[in-house]
Design brief:
The structure holds three protein chains of three kinds.
Chain A lengths: L14 H11 L4 H20 L6 H26 L8 H15 L4 H25 L4 H20 L4 E2 L5 H4 L2 E2 L3 E2 H19 L1 H11 L1 H6 L4 H25 L3 E2 L7 H12 L10 H20 L4 H25 L5
Helix pairs in contact in A: 2-13, 3-8, 3-11, 3-12, 3-13, 4-5, 4-6, 4-11, 5-6, 5-11, 8-9, 9-11, 12-13, 12-14, 13-14
Chain B lengths: L17 E10 L2 E11 L4 E5 L6 H9 L6 E6 L2 E2 L11 E4 L11 H6 L12 H13 L16 H14 L4 E5 L7 H16 L3 E5 L3 H7 L2 E6 L2 E7 L5 H9 L21 E8 L3 E8 L4 E5 L6 H8 L6 E7 L2 E3 L4 H6 L2 E4 L3 H5 L6 H5 L8 E2 L2 E2 L1 H14 L16 H13 L5 E5 L7 H16 L3 E5 L3 H7 L2 E6 L2 E7 L5 H9 L23
Parallel strand pairs in B: 3-8, 3-9, 6-7, 7-8, 13-20, 13-21, 16-19, 19-20
Antiparallel strand pairs in B: 1-2, 1-4, 4-5, 9-10, 11-12, 11-14, 14-15, 17-18, 21-22
Helix pairs in contact in B: 3-4
Chain C lengths: L1 H26 L6 H26 L7 H15 L4 H26 L3 H20 L4 E2 L3 H8 L8 H19 L1 H11 L1 H7 L3 H27 L1 E2 L7 H11 L11 H20 L4 H26 L2 H9 L5
Antiparallel strand pairs in C: 1-2
Helix pairs in contact in C: 1-12, 2-7, 2-10, 2-11, 2-12, 3-4, 3-5, 3-10, 4-5, 4-10, 6-10, 7-8, 8-9, 8-10, 11-12, 11-13, 12-13
The chains are: A mainly alpha, B alpha/beta, C mainly alpha.
Chain lengths: 336, 527, 326
């Protein structure tokens, strides 16, 4: 009376292969693994053939460019994983944060960081609340809040650069062991925290499940509102932290600094292999994506390619990554 | 025209309008259709019957060109159809069970949507008269052509769909459960329309669960079971019982079930008084004892399913007085339902029941994460143990726990969905079509687990359209018709025919008017 | 029921359209002067054409985030390659816009994601292209006669540019209303699954929608650059926000299937009148930006919450069936 069902082996890959892949690449997603390999290959090849790439100054500059974008990408990743696509107000939040950072730095680096990140968290939480409670379209909402945030920033600064009267050199120029920028340390710690939350905490699991199937999550009684609030709050905090990093290098804040964080973070997330549909992907994917794009930009920069071409190249890479990901999804075990 | 000119003759069509031969479609390991054939003569009304999962919807999708079969061919009016690409609506038009109405468009636009023979320049005025005619003939003369479809009731939408089918002037018109949301009067209208089309030479396939309608309207009937063609006979040569037997594969065995011990003294686990859900369920009251398994039964559109959904907190439009273990509870949200100790298993596991891309263990504990988290951090050890315990309860191989649910068969996926709900240690378990699309082996395992849990005191309420399931699992059966309770009997007092009638043939009480279309002229019904 | 909701929205829009000029007229001298009305319609010329294009994709159930980037690059193309003939410059720009539209639509069935994602990608790509074309400078267009021609006063308050925009509104309106493809666009947005199931040509409808969006954005950007006789990579960066606001204020639903060019025109007028009035009241561009942001926020909330609350039973049924993340 019911159709005969056998056990369809949709996944041919045996457990052993997956465990091995997981150990080697830290991921079982083909997209993410490919990007990791590609990044490594890119670095090796660049070191070999691109002149000036391996110079100390260049590697330093590369690392600094990764730090802020990497942090932004981590924040964006949580929003994407929760199924809300993207947050388009991260750039505005970062820009305003640079101004806030400069304005508060006289209180000392620690206190300033705390206050700025907290305000970013609040800004994010408000947006999350609007989206969750108001059932408002997440992308359009963040487009709107983006201009509100910038507007508020302009009113505060009058459009001028804010020069900080304090010492931010530990963050701005500090290096551990003489070569590792403290900003990379901050990135690593932030990534570790985010990863911990995502992998080990209850809310982290709810984030993934909500991103996978919102309807199932709702019926199962998951805390959907709390999840959205947390994701956006975290992303806001990430943007604020990224802005702080940017501001710290000169202890100055300006509304043009970090304004392109949206694009860079989205690019990193997409290239890194985090699924647009939500639910699948890891923090390390976002970081890898950021590194990959930073390396490409750096190679172009060090080879004398102008800024415009760099942008075009980045755009092409992002589109290619999205298409690549889509192809993989189609060829893989067809679900849904 | 195929009339009962020769009652004893073999049902071979004189000229064939549609000839579907040897259609086969396998989805991975699942055989949706195997070597199925069907013929239609012009002016024939042909019924297609079969249970859920028998292959009817796959067959329909192939005819419509939405699905490409692995094998087989279809010819309509001499044209060989290109399978897998959208069928020319002038050859075959389908009135789907899932409403294909766009609420933001006007009624007129909806009817004309997707039609062939329309030039790029869209002058609505040239179609208004004919569309008006079609609407009038299905009983929608009160509906304005330019009214937005969002203002129509579901029944009116169904009629608009039928009108659309008519307006396509197709050679073959396929109606998939067209009467589910309709009142008797509306059904009579639809039958009139069908007969008029028949007289004009249109051939129709009438897919329905409602055997009394099948016997009132159709010339021949085809039954599918398990993706295979079982029989094609003249309707007048069959009885209801024979059709049912063909649909489910064997006689309905009225096993003697011993009456359960009297539960009169035990306080009810669930107590529902005067429950109203929107305008679909009216004033329903029922009690369910601990350890009792209640089946809620009714046709599509009767409101039976809504009772279960309402108890799960899925409906916002209810007014009620519901008590669990004597305590009144609110049912305004899923959360409040869960808090009251009610767990719900949805009918569509892929969309609502399980996270296909997540591991089984994660799925099972999804609703009870709070139990295993300390300060927000998940404690894996306790969680794994619980997942294993529940998995073994439902005979899920514990070695598969870290694998994604999508790697399981339908039956095992359903078990995961059930385990997820049972993890809540609920006082009341609600099931919506508990074993839809599940193979026999897994069904048996599920039933025995449910029975065991009931014996341990769990109250279970389930909605099902599966005859066997109801007879197998239920202690008590509640029949709903038009939103009201019409029968509430212990299982052992129910005989299969009555139950079947309630599900597939409408209310057995003649006074509800189903007799009306049995008396139409030129009908070949079962007296 | 939703008829009354629509009437209410219409009434609010009309009230704003009449009320705001009255309020501004009382607060500002020479508000109703030809010069000021001309300024309003000049703003309408650019915002209108962009909002119109965007709204067609919204009606189809999608959202073209790349409209601003398309207009920017189109402006650069026009100035760069239209040296000898402005007509050819515009032609190249429009062809470019159409190609981008086709590409945006082509990715959709493939990727199976909302266009919100694909157009983010094209937006980023085109921003890069814009920087590349501009080469870091502001390009200028030599032939100022064209500029004068486009902006000359017609009937006191219009100009060829604003008239072109108005003409586009009329053409698109006729297209949506009186062609089967137009009907299919509405169907694709109203209930995508139903549209596919009933045989509407959804793929074609979406492609045409994005082509209109790309083409109009390009036309608008090209004309703007000619009018200003300059083009740069950062022109029109705010226009996305305003175009979205104008469309939604103009009655285009984010969910799709609802909206008309006439409504969009009203929305654009409301926004241009608002910004013009604020400017006359000496509001800074920042304050205007803030107001625009707040307006969009309010309007998005109304579209979400209020829409869900006021929806009819069938719409609620459809919304549940249509449940998607964005």
């Amino acid at each position: 009376m019911h159709k005969t069902a056998t056990e369809p082996t949709a996944h041919v890959s045996p457990t052993a292969l997956r465990r091995w892949a997981s150990a080697l690449f830290g991921t079982t997603s083909i997209h993410a693994a490919s990007i990791r390999i590609a990044t490594l290959v890119l670095i090796v090849v660049a070191a070999a053939i691109v002149p000036h790439f391996t110079e100390f100054g260049n590697l330093q500059s590369l690392m600094y460019s990764v730090a802020a974008v990497g942090i932004g990408a981590i924040g964006m990743a949580l929003v994407t994983l929760s199924g809300n696509l993207f947050m388009l107000s991260m750039g505005a939040t970062a820009a305003v944060s640079t101004v806030m950072f400069a304005a508060l730095i006289h209180l000392g680096l620690g206190a300033t960081l705390l206050l700025v990140v907290l305000s970013g968290l609040l800004m994010g939480a408000v947006q999350g609340g609007i989206i969750a409670l108001g059932k408002a379209n997440p992308i359009i909402t963040t487009i709107a809040t983006s201009s509100i945030i910038i507007g508020a920033g302009v009113i505060f600064t009058g459009g001028l650069t804010v020069i900080g009267k304090g010492d931010a050199t530990w963050l701005g120029q500090g290096k551990l062991f003489g070569w590792l920028p403290t900003q990379i340390l901050v990135l690593a710690v932030f990534a570790a925290i985010a990863s911990f939350i995502l992998q080990k905490s209850r809310i982290g699991r709810e984030i993934r499940l909500l991103g996978m199937r919102a309807e199932v999550a709702r019926i199962a009684g998951l805390r959907t509102m709390a999840v959205i609030l947390v994701c956006y709050a975290f992303a806001g905090a990430a943007a604020a932290l990224a802005g702080s990093l940017i501001a710290s290098s000169s202890a100055q804040g300006n509304l043009t600094y970090g304004i392109d964080l949206d694009f860079n973070a989205i690019a990193a997330v997409l290239v890194g292999g985090i699924s647009i549909r939500g639910g699948r992907g890891q923090i390390s994917d976002a970081v890898t994506g950021a590194i990959f794009l930073a390396v490409i930009s750096n190679i172009l920069l060090v080879s004398g390619v102008s800024y415009e071409y760099q942008l075009v190249a980045k755009g092409i890479v992002v589109l290619a990554a999205v298409v690549f990901g889509a192809l993989l999804a189609r060829l893989g075990p067809g679900r849904k | 025209m195929l009339q009962d000119a020769n009652p004893g003759a073999e049902p071979v069509a004189a000229q064939t309008l549609l000839c579907a031969r040897n259609l086969t479609k396998h989805y991975g390991g699942v055989k949706a259709l195997t070597g199925v054939s069907l013929d239609l003569a012009p002016g024939e009304i042909h019924a297609l019957c079969g249970e859920n999962g028998a292959g009817k919807s796959t067959f329909i999708k192939i005819l419509g060109g939405l699905v490409e079969p692995d094998d087989g061919e279809i010819t309509v009016d001499g044209h060989n159809l290109k399978l897998g690409s959208r069928t020319d609506p002038r050859l075959i038009s389908i009135v789907h069970q899932e409403l294909a109405i766009v609420p933001t468009l006007s009624v007129l636009d909806n009817i004309l949507l997707g039609g062939a023979d329309q030039s790029e320049i869209y002058r609505r005025s040239q179609y208004r008269d004919s569309v008006r005619e079609h609407l009038d003939s299905v009983g929608l003369s009160h509906v304005k052509l330019d009214a937005p479809a969002s203002r129509l009731s579901l029944a009116e939408c169904q009629l608009v769909e039928i009108a659309r089918g008519m307006s396509r002037h197709a050679k073959v018109l396929l109606l998939d459960e067209p009467t589910a949301t309709l009142s008797d009067a509306e059904i009579v209208r639809v039958f009139d329309v069908a007969r008029k089309l028949r007289d004009q030479g249109t051939a129709m396939i009438f897919v329905s669960h409602r055997l009394d309608e099948v016997f009132a309207l159709t010339d021949r009937v085809t039954v599918f079971r398990n993706g295979q063609h079982v029989l094609t006979q003249r309707t007048s040569d069959m009885t209801t019982a024979e059709v049912v037997k063909a649909m489910i594969g064997r006689e309905l065995v009225h096993s003697k079930v011993k009456p359960p011990e009297s539960r009169a003294e035990i306080a009810p686990r669930l107590s529902v008084s005067n429950l109203t859900v929107g305008d679909k369920v009216k004033d329903l009251s029922v009690d369910v004892a601990p350890g009792e398994i209640l089946a809620v039964v009714g046709q599509l559109g009767s409101g039976a399913e809504l009772l279960v959904e309402a108890l799960a907190g899925l409906r916002g439009d209810i007014s009620n007085s519901v008590k669990v273990d004597g305590q009144p509870i609110k049912l305004d949200s899923i959360r409040s339902s869960l808090k009251a100790g009610i767990a719900y298993v949805a009918e569509d596991r892929a969309d609502k029941g399980v996270f296909l891309d997540a591991p089984i263990a994660i799925n099972i504990t999804a609703s009870v994460m709070a139990k295993f988290s300390k300060a927000g951090i998940m404690r894996r050890a306790g969680e794994q143990e619980e997942a294993r315990r529940l998995a073994s309860m439902f005979a899920i191989d514990p070695k598969r726990l870290p694998h994604e649910v999508s790697t399981l068969s339908g039956g095992n996926q359903q078990k995961v969905s059930l385990a997820k709900a049972v993890a809540l240690a609920p006082r009341l378990l609600l099931l919506n079509e508990p074993t839809r699309g599940v193979d026999i082996g897994a069904r048996a395992e599920i039933y025995s687990t449910l029975r065991k849990m009931a014996d341990d005191g769990l109250a279970i309420v389930f909605y099902s359209t599966d005859l066997e399931e109801i007879l197998e699992l239920a202690d008590t059966v509640l029949t709903v018709f038009r939103g009201r309770m019409v029968r509430h009997k212990p299982r052992f007092e129910i005989d299969g025919d009555t139950l079947l009638h309630d599900i597939v043939a409408g209310d057995s009480d003649a006074s509800h008017g189903h007799v009306s279309f049995r008396n139409q002229p030129a009908e070949v019904g079962n007296a | 029921m939703d008829q009354s909701q629509r009437l209410l929205n219409l009434a609010i829009r009309l009230a704003l359209l009449v009320g705001m000029p009255v309020i501004f007229g009382l607060s500002v001298n020479h508000y109703f002067s030809q010069a000021n009305l001309y300024a309003i319609f000049q703003a309408f010329a650019f915002l209108g054409i962009i909002a119109l294009g965007l709204s067609v994709t919204m009606v189809a159930g999608e959202f073209d985030l790349s409209v601003a980037a398309i207009s920017t690059v189109a402006g650069l193309i026009t100035v760069k390659f239209g040296g000898d003939s402005a007509m050819f410059g515009i032609l190249y720009a429009v062809i470019f816009g159409v190609v981008v539209g086709v590409a945006n639509a082509a990715l959709l069935p493939w990727l199976g994601v909302s266009s919100l994602v694909t157009t983010v990608g094209s937006m980023m790509f085109l921003t890069g292209v814009g920087y590349w074309l501009a080469g870091g400078r502001v390009l200028s267009y030599g032939n100022l006669d064209v500029s004068d021609f486009l902006d000359q006063s017609v009937a006191g308050i219009f100009s060829p540019r604003s008239l072109i925009t108005i003409a586009c509104f009329v053409v698109v309106s006729l297209f949506l209303r009186f062609t089967t493809l137009g009907r299919d666009i509405y169907a694709s947005g109203g209930h995508r699954k139903a549209a596919i199931q009933s045989g509407a040509r959804v793929g074609k409808a979406l492609t045409v929608g994005f082509v209109i969006s790309g083409g109009l954005s390009a036309l608008g950007g090209g004309l703007l650059s000619l009018s200003l006789a300059t083009a740069s990579a950062t022109m029109g960066s705010n226009i996305l926000l305003q175009a979205a606001s104008a469309a939604i204020v103009g009655g285009v639903a984010l969910g799709g299937g609802i909206g008309s060019p006439l409504g969009v025109a009203m929305g654009v007028l409301i926004l241009t009148i608002l910004n013009n009035g604020l400017g006359l009241l000496n509001a800074t561009s920042t304050q205007i930006l803030l107001v625009n942001g707040l307006l969009l926020l309010i309007v998005v909330l109304l579209d979400g919450r209020l829409g869900a609350v006021l929806a009819s039973p069938l719409e609620r049924y459809v919304r549940r069936k249509n449940a998607t993340p964005a």
